[in-house]
Design goal:
Blueprint (H helix, E strand, L loop, with lengths): L1 E4 L10 E3 L5 E3 L3 H6 L3 E4 L4 H17 L13 H8 L12 H10 L4 H10 L2 H6 L1 H9 L13 H4 L9 H12 L3 H13 L2 H17 L4 H15 L5 H20 L1 H11 L4 H13 L4 E2 L11 E3 L2 E3 L10 H14 L5 H7 L7 H9 L10 H23 L5 H4 L22 H12 L12 H7 L4 H7 L3 E16 L5 E8 L4 E6 L1 H12 L4 E9 L4 E10 H6 L1 H4 L11 E7 L5 H12 L2 E11 L5 E5 L10 H11 L3 E2 L6
Parallel strand pairs: 5-7, 10-12, 13-14
Antiparallel strand pairs: 1-4, 2-3, 6-7, 8-9, 8-11, 9-10, 11-12, 13-16, 14-15
Helix pairs in contact: 2-13, 2-14, 3-13, 4-5, 5-13, 9-10, 11-12, 13-14, 17-19, 18-19, 18-21, 27-28
């Protein structure tokens, strides 16, 4: 992304060459370019800016509202509540599990908090304990201390913790009389950790502080603190610029969720894993995603009321040219009335048989009120009729149906016949849908297993990949992309993708396991895998130890779940909730999670308030649970340390 600018032709300053991609590149490296007096800029492309732009355009098109991103109120309570709830899918920089958990812990209520989150979620602040110190001070669990009163105005916004490089420069200027130029040299020296330079800077800082009548020992302590935190200090202007984009995405997601999710899915339509994740997000927010439709879909995902219509460009085998031809015909001559009408009107050199098959299989022609199976059976006849019609049009032959008052452009004609064909089963229809789209949309083979998977699975596939922690796992899903290979000994083993509603993961079934489950893997039924999650630098996979039909695993659910263990308190279960860190919506989620584990144990909710203050509530009889390790694991995944089955130290 580095671009070198000059007021004269670059060859007057330095040698150039052409790289393998045909780009013009300087033969001097970055340092040499700067030394000869040229300016180098880093221009970074950010697809989130396109997402924001597209979302604003959609809002104006669907609601007639003009949203000016540069004039958004930065104190919108609903937006900060969205972030506090951990509802950050699609929110710039705040999507990963780790930063989402930090955001929930920090509970941002102003823009300054958001800037701090992006500065703190980096290896240095996390490993040094600096991030945890910030959180404790923000929530009053640790006293805020300043080594000198002059530090308070500089560090007040970050609760006495040096978070930003600009704070280091301010401290040097205010306490030791540095100029801003000299303060910047100090900042760079601290980042490079040069012992000789740091010794010279310490001497200068202490001398400057002494001139301000600050005790020499105290000045040394302040310098030590600066040096410690400056190693990890982040550029505040950079963090603030990113935080603004984070806020803008969170604001649009909060106030215009349908338009936001439509824009997000358009921006990520080339990534199947992300589309599956976004579809799961839509389901969780009760935003229905409608199948592609030849009469309603545009190229991209678009809002239709409070629903989202799938984009034609996201259908496999449907290229840009095919979409362009379909939309042009629809714009000129109105909606398509049937498969035959469609074949007569669109350019069949751009919309070929593969395109047609994908459109039928994904349900794009369902609005014509003919079953997908019968349309597939009629496809050859429809395309032949369409090609003949287009040849006649090109040769200017007289359209006898038009002369007799029929519809020249469309309408049903005598040859428009759909053969009788066996209806596709639900399973077949879903399989074809996945073939055409890369995922399921109108339903999912796991729909009937939702509740049981919450009990017997370690978690969703997306959650396991996000956490990326090696260990034993139990997951359910549908097999795709089964590949059979032989080991060096000639033994057969299998590898495949296992997909649930949140995403997919690679699974390896080595020979001993594969022998026992080969028929099951070849079938179309959902399976349940027990194995070990292995996390490498470039891939995450599950090594299967045991594979069974999910229907069988569901019947034996009790054996997979609590393993016969009774909770330690007999018939009582105690849940400890940090009240200030859990929203009303999350309490509802907690209740629903408990209801998925019905049993006989009474639940006591301990609402932990200020240090030492606690309110205990016995939950009603309808919320009786069977405590198990799986329930504990699920609560931990959903709420982290904010909700626990064990007493928490204040």
């Amino acid at each position: 992304a580095g671009v070198v600018l000059s007021n004269l032709p670059l060859v007057d300053h330095l040698p150039l060459f052409v790289d393998k991609e045909g780009g013009i590149v300087t033969q001097f490296d970055m340092s040499a370019v700067e030394k000869i007096g040229l300016v180098k800029f880093d221009f970074l492309g950010l697809k989130t800016l396109t997402l924001l732009h597209d979302c604003v355009k959609l809002i104006e098109a669907t609601r007639g509202e003009k949203v000016d991103l540069n004039r958004l109120p930065l104190d919108d309570k609903k937006t900060y509540q969205t972030l506090c709830n951990g509802n950050t899918t699609g929110v710039f920089q705040l999507e990963s599990g780790g930063i989402r958990e930090m955001t929930v812990k920090i509970r941002p209520y102003c823009f300054e908090d958001l800037v701090a989150i992006l500065a703190l979620y980096r290896p240095g602040p996390l490993d040094s304990g600096m991030a945890e110190e910030y959180i404790k001070r923000k929530h009053g669990k640790e006293k805020i201390k300043y080594l000198h009163p002059l530090l308070e105005p500089i560090l007040k916004d970050t609760y006495g913790v040096i978070v930003y490089q600009e704070q280091v420069m301010q401290i040097a200027r205010v306490l030791a009389g540095y100029t801003m130029g000299d303060a910047d040299i100090l900042r760079r020296a601290m980042g490079k950790k040069d012992p000789e330079e740091m010794a010279a800077q310490r001497e200068r800082f202490v001398a400057g502080a002494r001139a301000q009548k600050i005790d020499e020992k105290r000045a040394g302590e302040i310098f030590d603190q600066m040096e410690t935190f400056a190693r990890y200090g982040f550029n505040k202007s950079h963090s603030a610029a990113y935080a603004l984009v984070s806020y803008q995405t969170a604001y649009l997601k909060t106030h215009y969720p349908v338009e936001f999710m439509a824009s997000l899915m358009t921006s990520e339509m080339g990534d199947t894993d992300k589309i599956i994740k976004n579809l799961a997000e839509c389901r969780s927010k009760e935003i229905e995603v409608l199948a592609p439709d030849i009469n309603e879909s545009r190229a991209d995902f678009t809002p239709v009321g409070e629903k989202i219509r799938f984009g034609l460009a996201a259908v496999k085998n449907v290229g840009e040219k095919a979409v362009e031809v379909i939309l042009e015909s629809r714009s000129e001559d109105g909606p398509f009335e049937s498969l035959f009408d469609f074949c007569r009107r669109v350019d069949l050199t751009a919309v070929n048989r593969r395109v047609m098959e994908s459109l039928i299989k994904c349900g794009a022609f369902d609005s014509t009120q003919v079953s997908r199976a019968r349309m597939m059976a009629a496809l050859d006849d429809a395309m032949r009729a369409g090609q003949a019609h287009q040849r006649d049009q090109e040769s200017r032959q007289i359209d006898i149906f038009g002369m007799l008052g029929g519809t020249g452009k469309a309408g049903k004609r005598p040859g428009d016949v759909y053969p009788q064909a066996p209806e596709w089963s639900v399973q077949e229809a879903l399989a074809f849908e996945k073939e055409a789209l890369g995922f399921y949309i109108s339903g999912h083979p796991l729909d009937k297993f939702d509740r049981v998977l919450k009990k017997i699975a370690t978690g969703t596939i997306a959650a396991l990949k996000e956490k990326a922690q090696a260990g034993d796992v139990r997951i359910g899903g549908v097999v795709s992309g089964l590949r059979l290979r032989n080991t060096k000994k000639g033994e057969r083993y299998g590898s495949f993708n296992l997909e649930d509603k949140s995403g997919f993961i690679e699974v390896i079934a080595w020979p001993d396991t594969y022998k026992k489950c080969s028929e099951r893997l070849a079938a179309d039924d959902p399976i349940f895998v027990k194995g070990r999650l292995e996390v490498g630098e470039e891939r995450i996979q599950v090594i299967a130890n045991e594979i069974e039909a999910l229907a069988e695993a569901a019947k034996n659910g009790k054996n997979h779940a609590a393993n016969g263990k009774v909770n330690a308190n007999g018939d009582r279960v105690h849940l400890y909730v940090r009240e200030a860190e859990v929203s009303a919506e999350e309490l509802v989620l907690l209740r629903d999670t408990l209801l998925d584990f019905p049993g006989r144990s009474v639940v006591y909710l301990h609402l932990l308030q200020s240090p030492g203050a606690e309110t205990v509530i016995e939950l009603p009889e309808q919320v009786r649970i069977a405590s198990s390790p799986d329930l504990e694991a699920m609560v931990e995944r959903l709420f982290g340390a904010r909700v626990s089955f064990h007493p928490q130290l204040s």
